[in-house]
Amino acid sequence: MKRAVCLLSGGLDSSTCLAIAKHEGYECFALSFDYGQRHRFELAAADRVANAYGVVHRTLSFDLRQFGGSALTSALEVPKHRSLAEMGDGIPVTYVPARNTIFLSFALAWAETLGAQDIFLGVNALDYSGYPDCRPEYVEAFTKLANLSTKAGVEGARMTIHTPLIALTKAGIVKLGASLGLDFGLTHSCYDPDAEGRPCGSCDSCLLRLKGFAEAGLTDPLEYR
After folding, report:
1. How many CB atoms lie within 10 A of CB 110?
2. How far apart are CA 106 and CA 92, in angstroms?
3. What Cα–Cα distance (Å) separates residue 41 from each residue in 30, 62, 134, 136?
4. To the nearest whole percent, how much of the chain has pLDDT over 70?
5. What is the pLDDT of residues 154-204, one digit of tens each?
6. What is the pLDDT of residue 125?
7. Does residue 127 surpass a pLDDT of 80?
8. Which residues, other chains included, contact 100 with Cβ-Cβ below 8 Å and sequence gap of 6+?
9. Neighbouring C-beta atoms of residue 217, cutoff 10 Å
């Protein structure tokens, strides 16, 4: 059985990506990050999803609040009630500088020590908030870097970064997750949950998630405040 490292935030996309990797027969190793994000409730969701799939799960800790620069790692206000047009106009303040590059670097290191040549990343380039590190050209560039910078890559064990959701709408992701039996009630997507972890229903992430469920003709099981 081939091994794969799956980046798992506990959100809709990364959880669906883990379900895909399991469905394709990989032995999965889930990797999450506690980086000082305001929506740390996602880490409990990642634990729930990893436990549901019976995979090895590790959470690495470091504090990106030391740099700030994002509404997710500072006191900047999380944008609310934005239209799809507004979401598609520029890079939002919820962008965390170099986040996917940092995450993939850790995933690459773990994959190499596991003898894994596959990394699963739940990025999406259609219904998303305009993050530059979610685009196909970014993934292609990092894959090239991975194979130039590792012992495994240089010796011919080529690394592949799988992005099975990159060309899907949120509705398509919801339908795919449902077809694979993913329990959406285990997941968490909100950027600005309340003290009890209930999603706000009005940040970009919540709005895109709710749009996906509505267009898929399904009901989101989460309780919104």
Report:
1. 17
2. 25
3. 17, 16, 22, 28
4. 99
5. 999 999 999 999 999 999 999 999 999 999 999 999 999 999 999 999 999
6. 85
7. no
8. 121, 123, 131, 133, 134, 138, 142
9. 9
Specify the 3-state DSSP secondary structure of 16.
helix
Q: What percent of the chain has pLDDT over 90?
A: 93
Q: What is the CATH number of domain 3-216?
A: 3.40.50.620
Rounded CA gap, 224 and 222, in Å? 6
> Which residue, among 45, 43, 102, has the nearest Cα to 70 in the 3D structure?
102
In 3-state terms the chain splits into helix, strand, coil percentages (rounded to 5) of: 40, 10, 45
State pLDDT tens for residues 40-69: 999 999 999 999 999 999 999 999 999 999
Sort residue 104 into left (φ over 0), alpha (ψ -120 to 50) or beta. alpha
Task: Kindly provide the b/e burial profile for residues 112-142, where b requires at least 16 CB atoms within 10 angstroms of the residue's own CB.
Answer: beeebbbbbbbbbbebbbbbebbbeebbeeb
Please report, as a single letter, which amino acid is at residue 206: C
Over range 141-152, report the average pLDDT: 97
Output the CA–CA distances (angstroms, integers) from residue 72 to 79, 99, 222, in the order listed.
11, 11, 21
Q: Where does residue 74 rank: exposed (0-12), middle (13-18), buried (19+ CB within 10 A)?
A: middle
Q: Please tell me the pTM assigned to this model.
A: 0.96
How far apart CA 119 and CA 129 sit, in angstroms, is 23
